[in-house]
Amino acid sequence: MMLALSFFLPFLATCLTYATPLSGRSMIVHERREAIPGGFVSHGLAPKDAVLNLRLALVQSDPAGLEEALMAVSTPSSALYGQFLSKEEVEKFVAPAPQSVAAVSAFLSEHGVTAKPISPAGDWLSIDVTVAQANALFNTEFTTFTHTETGATAVRTLEYSIPADLQGHLDFVHPTTTFPESLNRQPLVSIPLPKGVVPLATQANLSTDAVPASCATLITPACLQALYGIPTTRATQTSNVLGVSGFIDQFANQADLKSFLTSLRPDLLSTTGFTLQTLDGGTNSQTRSQAGLEADLDTQYTIGVASGVPVAFVSVGDSTRDGVFGFLDIINFLLAESNPPHVLTTSYGANENGVSRALANNLCNAYAQLGARGTSILFSSGDGGVSGSQSGTCTTFVPTFPSGCPFMTSVGATTGISPETSATFSSGGFSNFFGIPSYQASTVSAYLTKLGSTNSGKFNRTGRGFPDVSAQGEHVEIFFQGASTTVAGTSCSSPIFASVVSLLNDELIAAGKSPLGFLNPFLYSTGLSALTDVTTGNNPGCNTNGFPATTGWDPVTGLGTPNFAALRTAVGL
């Protein structure tokens, strides 16, 4: 199962309630929530001398221009395909206009507040203010709330205002109406292997195209090599880094990785490891009892499948204040690098209805920035079928986040080998925040035509469809805290597909070509015939059978699973 993040953050940009603070500026309500979210209780006004760290998102100068540039360098038919932008070129699209910086700075100065930039392009500012100052700045009353289940406290407000003359300059302020929901952290399915099971890597005849029957009940790197034609040849390009995201104190254990390689990839050096990058106070304890199931899975099925590709484990700590549990922090961290990874895989997610449109849009634009620089961003689609990132009660379908963002690649899950079928937990559907992007317009239209009136009224027929692709997600063998075990979830699928992309990048770079970058325009055009269509199964939820898999794209398995040889041809190798 995918480890899920759940947040409450509604956004009401159309409120037109005005007020006049002591400064004489006309204020307009910018964000408001109608009630305290479930599970929280108010304990009255926050102490006026308590210090808040607030983040101000400035309106970016040219997000439409950024999207146009991203599509130009990512679409195979474009004359600019593969000509990725530099750090400085991307920052020009997102840097706020000088008048926006001046207007917001002047407003803060009136209250004796100084801001500091906290993003590479300066579109995010940070301020430290007392509750009294924050109340005056945003014409609000910050209150202390407690989560009844966890006991966690948070200083938040149910609405805040900004000066009317800052509209078009100040995008939003965070955290204000964001309530920190406790992390919905359900462990991956973990089943110890029965005695006598022989790892497939020790069996003979795995160099043929035949997939051993045992792969139907136990997936290993050797199974993936046989099923998808993934080569065992070592990658050669040291610049071709594959990034693996780590969150919520999930630590990737080198000893577990060594056991995994010794047992399941004996042709690789058992000492093969990963480099570590940290932010927001992140660490990576090597105490084996503290190894994380998710982190072990993600590093073992990148290092163990993308043979020889350099892997960086990026550990995001608990000191996050971006509202999406470090999702934005890690992108800004990588955007600040001169050479970010060519691929980034993440096996965490949230329900879209728990994220505000403003914050969702800002994060999605950050993915566009990294994509324009040549990074392929992949996310697990979720494990709740049509009920969200995890199974839950619902009456209408719950899209996951960030899978609804059109500037990343969402990966669903399959199971079985003859042929593959959809895993029933594979999250998929249609975004309520983002419209259908041009690259998938025809495929989504074709699916909706075949779907007819099924599930009518339960989803947004004009939303971006997800997932985009899929890969194996059940009965996957890993080593965890010293023992062999099996796991399941789209958490397995994203690192597997990311490994395929990284191996293609290695060959492209060796041939003097550019890496693939943002994948979707390629996948929905030139790459379409290089994927194996998965046409059976569904993803139940919300007291329905969910969506059916069918010929062509579907919101269960996307366009299908990888065929490495065909993908090599499609990318021009």
Automatic annotation (TrEMBL):
Superkingdom in the source lineage: Eukaryota
Species lineage: Eukaryota, Fungi, Dikarya, Basidiomycota, Agaricomycotina
Taxonomic source organism: Auriscalpium vulgare
Protein name: Family S53 protease-like protein
